[in-house]
Write a structure and sequence with these properties.
This protein is about 35% helix and about 20% strand. It has about 400 residues and is of the alpha/beta class. It has two domains: about 260 residues, Alkaline Phosphatase, subunit A, CATH 3.40.720; about 100 residues, 2-Layer Sandwich (Alpha-Beta Plaits), CATH 3.30.70.1250. The strands form two sheets. Strands 10-9-11-1-12-13-2-14 form an eight-stranded mixed β-sheet, sandwiched between helices. Strands 3, 4, 5, 6, 7 and 8 form a six-stranded mixed β-sheet that branches. Helix 10 runs parallel beside helix 12.
């Protein structure tokens, strides 16, 4: 029996990609912004694994998380080959499915979405639409929440990513109905090559609106096979934790746990590792708090504390690894909390690869996130997938 875990710290970039200026992200560096802001950094396990060594490959040091002479893990950084900087693009490429054509994005100002799309959405759902622009979710809910409560329509908005988000108050639209609305929107959005439709339920009253944990992402179906399909077809149990199941529309997944927030996802990961499965397993885990609660809100202190919580869980995760079991730690894009705006940032992502049985190596600067998927195929002694170069 062999197990591999791919732990994605959502949006934990480590330096702007060479083409970052095309996205308005020149100079972005999520990890560096956090480390430079905190006076006494407390990420001992990420430091021991070699996070600082990853940064050194790009020519900079992380204050408080400098390179170590003998890192516990093999270390590197990966460049995103696909155009874009969103969740779906990053995760699909990590799973061996790069995009050649970017997902569709929309202008920030009203009206963001094409009239044909909004008319179809109104016809299918029976609701009028408020918003129809790019916005911070918490801000637009506060601005339009009263009108929504008055029965004027759903709050529909986008961002710099390829998303159509639908916000509704639980007292006006039940969770079940909101999910049904988003399923209808998903079918409409397929024709426009929109990466995700996101349900954004909220509660409360004007001035005190709160988004709930019942957010749900409705992604496009993957446009081809991923490492999840390859593993599952070859008798490797694939376990999705967090929003992974939503990102891949449950394709190639044996068991999907839709746990919300990092603590629940870390606990679920540990619970799964404690089990004696008796067969090969792959755990694909997304830790979303860093992005959703802190990156987009440009909350450096909150982002730092979220990484501290992840760091504190690492020794227990490692303690459950046996033999050649493999732990990979990476990210899907950046979301620099010290940068301008509120959107994702186009960055390299760190790569840490730990096993009890292998010495740490310099994995260098990798040209695609697909290398993670190809390495997983090699780890499980399977035939190579089409994309990526194995570092295993």
């Amino acid at each position: 029996m062999a197990r591999a875990i791919l732990l994605i710290i959502d949006s934990f970039g480590i330096g702007a990609l060479p083409d970052a200026a095309q996205y308005g992200d020149e100079g972005a560096n999520t990890a560096l912004s956090i480390c430079s802001h905190v006076s006494a950094l407390q990420w001992p396990w990420l430091k021991r694994l070699g996070l600082g060594n990853c940064a050194s490959l790009l020519g900079h040091d992380l204050p408080g998380c400098e390179p170590v002479k003998q890192p516990m893990a093999s270390y590197g950084v990966m460049a995103e080959r696909s155009p874009g900087k969103d969740t779906t693009t990053g995760h699909w490429e990590l799973a061996g499915l790069p995009l050649e054509k970017p997902f569709t994005t929309f202008p920030p100002d009203f009206p963001s979405f094409p009239e044909e799309l909004t008319e179809a959405l109104k016809a299918e759902t029976g609701y009028d639409i408020l918003g129809n622009c790019s916005a911070s979710g918490t801000v637009i809910i506060e601005e339009l929440g009263q009108r929504h409560l008055n029965g004027e329509g759903l709050i529909v908005y986008t961002s710099a990513d390829s998303v159509l988000q639908i916000a509704a108050h639980n007292d006006i639209v039940s969770i079940e109905e909101l999910y049904t609305i988003c399923e209808k929107a998903r079918k409409i959005c397929d024709a426009y090559h929109i990466g995700r439709v996101i349900a954004r339920p909220f509660t409360g009253k004007p001035g005190e609106f709160v988004r709930t944990r019942q957010r749900k992402d409705f992604s496009m179906l993957p446009t081809g096979p991923t490492i999840l399909d390859h593993l599952k077809q070859n008798n490797v149990e694939t376990i999705a934790i967090g929003k992974i199941g939503d990102i891949f529309s449950e394709q190639g997944i044996s068991t999907s746990y839709h746990d919300a927030e990092n603590r629940a996802c870390l606990d679920r990961t540990l619970d799964e590792l404690k089990k004696q499965a008796g067969h090969n397993q792959f755990l694909f885990v997304n830790l979303v708090d860093t992005d959703m609660y802190f990156g987009h809100r440009r909350d450096i202190d909150g982002y730092y504390r979220a990484i501290c919580e992840i760091d504190a869980a690492i020794p227990e995760i490692i303690g459950h690894l046996a033999g050649e079991d493999l732990l990979l730690i990476s990210a899907d894009h950046g979301c620099d909390p010290g940068f301008k705006g509120t959107d994702h940032t186009r960055e390299y992502v760190p790569l840490l690869s730990y096993s009890n049985e292998y010495a740490a190596l310099n994995l260098g600067v990798r040209s695609s996130f697909c290398d993670a998927a190809q390495s997983l195929a090699a780890f499980f002694s399977l035939s190579p997938i089409k994309q990526g170069h194995s570092f295993y």
